[in-house]
Amino acid sequence: MFVRFGNFGSFVPLLVQNGQQQQQRGMATLKSISMRLKSVKNIQKITQSMKMVSAAKYARAERDLKAVRPIGDGATQFYEKAEIQPVQDIPQKLVIAISSDRGLCGAVHTSVARYIRGELAKDDQNIKVVCVGDKSRAILQRLYGKTIIMACNEIGRLPPTFIDASKLADAILKSEYKFSAGQIVYNKFRSVVSYNTSILPVFSLASVTAAPKLSVYDSLDDEVIQSYLEFSLASLLFYAMKEGACSEQSSRMTAMDNASKNAGEMIDKLTLTFNRTRQAVITRELIEIISGASAL
Amino acid sequence: MSAWRAAGLNYINFSNIAAKLLRQALKADLRAEADKRSGTHIKITKWQEGKPIKESTY
């Protein structure tokens, strides 16, 4: 601690209680550097092992995703081929945010939440949100808490299963909320280093039966359509969850790789400063000894 | 109207029950693999006015 005395303009170091941590300006003590070095090394160990874990999880998620892709493609084809439009007289919409409980994976959750925030900024009266995963909920809760009608957690620790998706689809269908159309917002996996935040459309029964080109499908009655819609909601959710999980793991892998690299750089710099400081201390002590000896 | 819908199930419940039975019918070695996909962990909570209203176990 330094205290300035009147107009002398000189710094007089005063040793107050923490005399131990007294240090020269601009020069950290050896001890504080070595402590810092140790903590950075520990962080690097942690990020490295997190990277290994997510690399293993990613490999599995990608394998699963390959198997799931046809399910998602099939379900989206129906909406495209029948050219379904949301019915005009029900303005209510539903947005389903696919994220997970776990963080430390780059901008995976924020980009989903940012898209939904953009939608809600346009119209926050007629849109309700279903949050899958604690992270998207935590981001949206503060500004748009009133629009959330359902939140799910315990997702992301283990790979999502179809039963998870069907529970969610069941809960959405059984909720009292009536909507004409909806979006599933998720991260579409592109490669290990990139993902796109995309949307999948979902529609209500009324919108589907009003579709102009529904006749391209043969022998449809109301019950078949209703059953198919229920099932396709579950499969779309399942597909989106799988894409999301895969993007998340790959993104976490990249994030942890970067973190380990940065920690490595920090360690190099700190080691250099540590060695320099140690050298400086030795030199100073030598000077003190020599000048003391020559003063005799 | 089919019997399962009359009983209050929707197609999701119906197909999951069918899938469960199919898994049970598999041979032991294949069944172990299939059982891994039958688990579920998700917890769904309904929200109202920016607050969770009750823990529900769907």
Automatic annotation (TrEMBL), chain A:
Entry-linked Pfam families: ATP-synt
Membrane topology type: Peripheral membrane protein
Compartments in which it is found: Mitochondrion inner membrane
Cross-referenced InterPro entries: ATP_synth_F1_ATPase_gsu, ATP_synth_F1_gsu, ATP_synth_F1_gsu_CS
Annotated keywords: ATP synthesis, CF(1), Hydrogen ion transport, Ion transport, Membrane, Mitochondrion, Mitochondrion inner membrane, Transport
Gene Ontology CC: mitochondrial inner membrane; proton-transporting ATP synthase complex
Coarse class of the protein's main subcellular location: mitochondrion
Gene3D superfamilies: 3.40.1380.10, ATP synthase, gamma subunit, helix hairpin domain
Subunit structure: F-type ATPases have 2 components, CF(1) - the catalytic core - and CF(0) - the membrane proton channel. CF(1) and CF(0) have multiple subunits.
NCBIfam families (alphabetical): ATPsyn_F1gamma (TIGR01146)
Family per similarity comment: Belongs to the ATPase gamma chain family.
Annotated protein name in UniProt: ATP synthase subunit gamma
Annotated source species: Psylliodes chrysocephalus
Automatic annotation (TrEMBL), chain B:
GO cellular component, one term: proton-transporting ATP synthase complex
Span list, region Disordered: 35-58
Domain of life: Eukaryota
Basic and acidic residues bias (residue ranges): 46-58
GO biological process: proton motive force-driven mitochondrial ATP synthesis
GO molecular function: proton-transporting ATP synthase activity, rotational mechanism
The family this protein is said to belong to: Belongs to the eukaryotic ATPase epsilon family.
Name of this protein: Protein stunted-like
